[in-house]
Amino acid sequence: MSLADEIEWRPSPNYNARVVPEGERPIRHIILHYTGMEDGEAAVDWLCNPESGVSSHYLVHEDGRIIQMVEELDRAWHAGNSRWRGQTDLNSSSIGIEIQNPGHEWGYRPFPDVQMRQVLRLVATLCVRHRVDRADVTGHADIAPTRKQDPGELFDWPRLARHRIALARPEKLLADPGWTDAAFGLALERFGYDITNPEAATRAFQQHFRQNNPDGVVDGETRAVLFTLQVLEEQRLQAIGASTSSA
């Protein structure tokens, strides 16, 4: 059965038109969330409730069922006050995917394999359909570090990275560059994060890229992870540029 045939439609009234700058593609980001509620069906009901003021395009249940609530080309209300790589109003440029999990408030737990398989299939499909770069597949915490911590340190980013549809901690790290905390903050901002609250931004980065200990402290390992990611991304983008220019 194709993925499209598996998706259940539950329309939400909570959406509006995207605001797309001239010359830009309407969908350039994919943002992953956890529901942060005790029950998946209650989360769907809330996202479809006109009084909630929130929605997402998709929700993936723990048992692998996928619910679609907003058409992809419409603007769902999932990102809130957010920023990534200098861009705000991520609702207008993204597809939001809620992933059923009680979250840190209600008993955070690992994401089941059947659920992760469906998340992977969905994200891979959307990346191809909308030409979303792997670096722009993020978590809610990545784009709103002072407010959010989902999908959190138990989410299997490495699994998505192995399929080249997200970034994760590199397997081999370069040496600690020895940055000061201020220099680390500037590097983190260049990578994409809002560093208004440096500790929150560091913790969000760690929940994605140094998941074994997301304590918000800038240490040698955290600096090495960010430095390695920077170098690898520069190399990847240079390779893409070279391939494009020679085509």
TrEMBL record:
InterPro entries, alphabetized? Amidase/PGRP_sf, Amidase_domain, NAMLAA_amidase_2, PGBD-like_sf, PGBDSf
Going by the record, the broad EC class of this enzyme is hydrolase
Identify a single GO molecular function assigned to this protein.
N-acetylmuramoyl-L-alanine amidase activity
The top of its lineage is: Bacteria, Pseudomonadati, Pseudomonadota, Alphaproteobacteria, Sphingomonadales
Where is the N-acetylmuramoyl-L-alanine amidase domain positioned along the sequence?
A: 14-152
Source species of the chain: Sandaracinobacter neustonicus
The record ties this protein, via PANTHER family, to: N-ACETYLMURAMOYL-L-ALANINE AMIDASE AMID
- An annotated GO BP: peptidoglycan catabolic process
Q: State the GO CC annotations.
A: outer membrane
Q: Does the keyword Hydrolase apply?
A: yes
Q: What is this protein called?
A: N-acetylmuramoyl-L-alanine amidase
Gene3D superfamilies recorded: Peptidoglycan recognition protein-like, PGBD-like superfamily/PGBD
Could you tell me the superkingdom of the organism this chain comes from? Answer: Bacteria
